[in-house]
Write a structure and sequence with these properties.
With 83 residues, this protein is mostly helical. It is built from 3 helices and no strands. Helix 2 runs antiparallel to helix 3.
Length: 83
């Protein structure tokens, strides 16, 4: 899973840079593709089934929060490794 790999603790600077590259690629290519698939799956469901729409928006919000938190962690890690 993307989240499992992204949340691993890097063992060294090289591993950190590999994780950073992996996350960047996932954000640019994999996540938009997965989001499109979720949207398509949601549109195939019955439109009056409110929990599907609510659940879908909750996942989107959760994903945004995870991205922001990961960016903060990466920034702090890079700053710490420069020192």
């Amino acid at each position: 899973m993307i989240s499992d790999k992204a949340l691993t603790t890097p063992t060294n600077t090289q591993h950190l840079m590999e994780l950073k590259e992996f996350v960047s690629k996932a954000q640019e290519t994999d996540l938009p593709l997965l989001q499109e698939r979720m949207t398509q799956a949601g549109s195939r469901c019955v439109s009056h089934f409110t929990p599907v729409h609510t659940s879908e928006s909750m996942w989107g919000d959760r994903d945004t929060i995870k991205k922001k938190n990961f960016r903060k962690i990466m920034s702090l890690t890079v700053l710490c490794n420069k020192g």
